[in-house]
Amino acid sequence: MKLLVVGGGGREHAIIKKLKENPQVTEIFACPGNGGMAEDATLVPIGAKEIEKIVTFAKEQCIDYAVVAPDDPLVLGAVDALNEVGIPCFGPKANAAIIEGSKVFSKNLMKKYHIPTAEYEVFEDCEKALAYLEIAPIPTVIKADGLALGKGVIIAETREDAKAAVRSMMEDQVFGASGNRVVIEEFLTGPEVSVLSFTDGETVVPMISSMDHKRALDNDQGLNTGGMGTIAPNPYYTSAIAKQCMDEIFLPTVKAMKAEGRTFKGCLYFGLMLTPKGPKVIEYNCRFGDPETQVVLPLLESDLLTVMMATTNGTLAETEVKFRDAHACCVVMASKGYPGKYETGYELTISTDSVFVAGAKLEDGILKTAGGRVLGVTAVADNLKAAVDAAYEKVKDVHFDNAFYRHDIGKRALMAGKEE
Ligand code: AMP
Ligand code: GLY
């Protein structure tokens, strides 16, 4: 079978490595992929958002199955376009990807179907938003409606900060049209859990839970990033909470999407907060998380391609999805300065396995850094402490100038249940 994976980061590298385990897979193309995955996939110089070019390429190559991994092409309709020329695809169509593409859509969906989430108001008028902020409880959370490269959420500790955030989104349009509407929502507290799930639109099968570490520096200091490391499973996510989430959040969401005529197939990502009043949805993503995928897929025992195709064919209920009874830790290595300004072009040497490369290019056969987040190093072990230690051991086998990474990935999870 010939496969095509759309996207080019560490998440896509983890997906590609897992897909390769199926002996029926003969070739995997990546649009565009990156130089660090050249041994695992054939790189195609077409960007993930160049949907027409992707479709033409997929037709020419007679691709048997495609996986669209990032949010933008999903929201832009890559799955619809590939389906139109007869290529089956993993991922939601555009009318379902809106669950991530519009925060106003997802908040209204949750309200209509009584799915627990933070209280909120929607504003299309800047003055009205500013007036509301005079009375809103503080801290408050301001969210741009549309996709904003993961930067569209601002937690404001003061009224002045909240107003500045609204002005920057609605007046200065720092996120372009994504900020034409904003959601202002209740600030929630509690441990965060990422639960990725497979769904065929009827059945939903949660994957092993995970915990992201979003801030750039140790002890959750510094700026928000795309994610500096992950562990799985998440110790705060007990089996009782998992059952509650299935009954109150996962199944109701999948049913709600179907009832709205927006059947969701693919990976539905639930960003949850375990608040004192129970689990609530912080965000939905219409795709695998990055770097959650880098710890979740190494623990998947079942064949990924089989499970993915079951979501497309509507046969997930009859398909086994099994995870190993083990733990994983992924440490992201970035270039100094990330998520601000950073240099690229440093020579990169990797002498260990389970490295998922996010930002690298091949220049005359030499691998060089080409992004802020350069790669993630994953280790799997019988317990969390051993997985964390093994991941940090492996980090020593990766070298590039000005590398930086957090030293405390997994620390909070190791403390779970021991607080106070
Ligand atoms: P997002 O970009 O939607 O993943 O949000 C980024 C981060 O902002 C989340 O991981 C949470 O830590 C935080 N966040 C989002 N919404 C809320 C909320 N209502 N209350 C508290 N924290 C939030
Ligand atoms: N790691 C968070 C995300 O993929 O959105």
Detailed description of the structure:
This protein starts with a strand and ends in a 5-residue tail after the last helix. The protein is globular, with a radius of gyration of 21 Å. The chain has 13 helices and 25 strands. The model has no long low-confidence stretch (mean pLDDT 96). It is of the alpha+beta class. Helix 7 runs antiparallel to helix 8. Helix content is 29%, strand content 27%. The strands form seven sheets. Strands 12, 15, 18, 20, 23 and 25 form a six-stranded antiparallel sheet that branches. It folds into four domains: 90 residues, Rossmann fold, CATH 3.40.50; 56 residues, ATP-grasp fold, A domain (Dna Ligase, domain 1); 127 residues, 2-Layer Sandwich (D-amino Acid Aminotransferase, Chain A, domain 1), CATH 3.30.470; 92 residues, Alpha-Beta Complex (Glycinamide Ribonucleotide Synthetase, Chain A, domain 4), CATH 3.90.600. Helix 1 links the parallel strand 1 and strand 2. Bound molecules: adenosine monophosphate and glycine (GLY). The site of glycine has 6 residues, from loops. The site of adenosine monophosphate has 14 residues, from strand 8, strand 9 and strand 17.
